[in-house]
Structure formats: structure tokens, C-alpha cells
Amino acid sequence: MSAPDQPPQGVPVSLSASVVGSFAYLTIRDRLPTILTKVIDTIHRNKNTFFEEYGEVGVQAEKSAISLLSKLRNELQTDKPVIPLTDGLEDAESWNQYLERHQHLLEEEDGVSWFKSPWLYVECYMYRRIQEAIWLNPPINDFDVFNEGKTQSYFESQQAIMALCTNLRGLNKSTEELPENQLVEHFHKLLKVSLWGNKCDLSISAGQENSQKASPLESLAELQPYVLVDDSDSVWLALISARRPGPSGKPTPGRVDIVLDNAGFELVTDLVLADFLVSSGLAREIRFHGKSIPWFVSDVTANDFQWTIRQTMAANHKWMSKSGVQWQSYVREGVWSYQDHPFWTQPHEFCDMTSDAPDLYATLQGSDLVLFKGDLNYRKLTGDRDWEPTVSFDVALRGFGPAPLCSLRTLKANVQVGLQAGQAEKLSACHPDWMTSGKYAVVQYCSPNS
Ligand code: F6P
Ligand code: MG
């Protein structure tokens, strides 16, 4: 594993309140204990279920998990040192090595602690410690503490999901005959729907309901001024230029990878985009990348991915269920696949992927376009550094470029690059919370060949 290196510019954003500024919902420092309190509450509320499933041993496991999580909350709130993981899971050793290297680097007398360490690191570490508390307590060790919120977000977005599926199935009937200019138009719309789907994550609201009620397609024009960087045209060109002459003379499109973010409404927007890309001949294959453990409250796991498709199939709405059936057959035929990798649930910046997860890097190199969804992926793409906002995306990626890539992200954290001179200053003057409110967004593209 490579060391968390020193930034060429700026410093990693830390949890200390002084650099955080105001936040639309809760300050970063408040948000983590609030999330932990909700996790504890969720486990406690499921006590009877554990008893019904496992008897007394389930109740003992519930108590013990809560005690570990309460200890964790106390460590966080009182700025205790960050301690090694003890659960012996596959990735524990690499987390512990990362901690050791951090300790060396920071040369803190009293070790790496919650407030003094980079925010990206401690935030990831908190979610990994939640998993440790669950994992150490069989038989409840496969309990997803965030499952309720994720399924609730899906159900509360039903109207918007119906609108999207109805639109999609209408398009599918005609995509073969659509002239290119209309295809481009639909592509732009569905890319933006997937972008704004990222507004609906639960970690920004500390797990409180944050779903999509209105039809997202109708709000796109209104939202456009909030897209600070819009490289959608480059994304379109990447798809078009990935087409290769096929055996029958018809061009064969390329492979698109989507590094997923949140379950619930956002995942549906990603599946709708993926469906459109395949059915319109803009992609021949889609690989979805998700998390191997419950992560950042609402992130997609394999279970969420399958559940969402099943649930959409079973919907009592013609176009939703037809969409679900279509998605299931894409999965069955291997046109769509889902994979996870421990790298996605580590604190590493993506420029470390070549050394820390070379197999994953090699997989992404086979793609013609990698879409990175969401804020956390953006923070990892740019190393969560305090960059000048005018620094180019390419520079901030610091060599990470397995394939042409694009970030689809609503802004929820104090990092942004690739803006025009003066743009950040104007935004700060009118909207002091522009970087963290989730109101603004970027579609930011970079190709290793450009
Ligand atoms: O702002 C809170 C936060 O948890 C950030 O730490 C994180 O970057 C973001 O929310 C998660 O957002 P997303 O789901 O878009 O990655
Ligand atoms: Mg997320």
C-alpha cells in the first residue's frame, strides 16, 4: 500500500470545525455522532426481530454491538486516538497499515485522532468501525444497519420513479428509429437526471428522509444554471468514438462502467441511464461497481442492487414493472453486471489505485467510459484537497486515468476544481454554502488521451 502522501497543493480537509464553515443540515462534526446515534437506535429497534430469528443469542449480540458503537461514539466525540481494527476481515490489515503510515507522517505525539486527521480518512474509518461492531457480533453479523433508510428512500420516490420508467419505455419503442439529434437530446436529459439523482443521498441529511417527489425530467431546465461545469458534450463524444465497426457493418458500441453511489432514487436514475445507453446502441455492456459493506448511509451494496431490480419488477405499475423485467434480463444475459471491490470502501484517493488495487485499475482500463457518481467519489478523485477552484480536473486527478472518465456530482464537500477564474468568488458572495448545500452540481470529464 502506498503512503498517504503530502499534497502538491493545499492540505486534506480535516474534521476540525474551523475549516468546515456552515452547513445546510448539520456541521460535519455533528453529523457523524448523529449518524452513529441513529445506527444504535436502529439496532435497538430490531431487538425483537433478532430474538425471533436467533433467540437469546440474538439479543446478546444486539447488546454487544450497541456497546461497541457507543464506545465508538465516545471516542469520536472526545477526540480519542484512531485505533487499529480487530475484526480480522480481509481488508483489516490494510486499514491498520494505513493508520500506521498516517501516524508516521503526522508525527503527532498522541497519535492520529478524530479531529486532527483528514476528514476523508476519519469519515471512512467511522463506517468501517460500524461494520466491525456488526461483524464481531454473530449471528447478527450480516445486518445492514442502513437498509431501512435505503428502502424508504426508494418507496418515497415512487412518483418520480414511475415518471422516469414511463418516459424510458416510451423512448425504448422508438430509439432504433430516432434521428441522431433526438438521441443526443435524450442522452443529455438522462445524464442530467442521473446527475441530480445524487442530490438524494442520506448521509448529507444524517439519514433523514431526502427523497425525490417531483418528476425529475420536468425540473431539468430550472436546474441547469446550477451546473457549474458541464462537459456532457465530451461524454457524448466519448461514447460515439468508442463505436467500432461490427461484423455486420453495424457499429459495435463500447463498454461503460458506472461507479455507483446511493441506493434509492439515485440508483434508479443510474439504471434508467444504463438502460437507455444499451437500448439506444450507445453502449454494448454496462458494469456497475458498488460497495461490499454498508457505507456512507445510503451507498449501494449487491443486495440493494438486486433488491431494487426485483422491487421495480414487482411494482404495480406497467412501465415500472416492464423496466424491472428489462433490467433483470440485462443482468441475466450479462449485458449488465455488478461487482464490488474492497478498494471502494477504503479511505484511499483514487490516484493510489494503481499501487493499492492494480486489479481494479486493470478492470477499469477495459472500459470506454467510467462514470463516477456522487460527492464521495469526487473527493477521492481529487484527493479531498484544498485545491484552488481554478486548478484543472486533470491536475487534481494526479495521474488517475484508467479510461475516459466523468464525475457526476452534486457538491456536498469543500472541494471543487475546474472552475473559471472568479466563478468561486462570485458563488461565495451570493451563496456562502455553495460547496456543501447539494444545490450545485458538475459534470466533469477527463480523458487520458486529451
Ligand atoms: O457531506 C456529507 C457527506 O457524508 C460527505 O462526507 C460525503 O462526501 C457525502 O456526504 C456523501 O455524498 P455522496 O453520497 O454524494 O457521495
Ligand atoms: Mg453516498
List keywords for this structure.
seven-stranded mixed sheet; Rossmann fold; 450 residues; binds magnesium ion; alpha/beta; binds 6-O-phosphono-beta-D-fructofuranose
What report would you give on this structure?
With 450 residues, this protein is of the alpha/beta class. It folds into two domains: 119 residues, Transcription Elongation Factor S-II, Chain A (Up-down Bundle), CATH 1.20.930.60; 295 residues, 3-Layer(aba) Sandwich (Rossmann fold). The protein has 19 helices and nine strands. Strands 1-9-8-7-4-5-6 form a seven-stranded mixed beta sheet, with helices on both faces. Strands 2-3 form a two-stranded antiparallel sheet. Helix 2 packs antiparallel against helix 4. The longest helix has 22 residues. The chain is globular. The N terminus is likely disordered. The protein binds 6-O-phosphono-beta-D-fructofuranose and magnesium ion (MG). Magnesium ion binds next to loops.
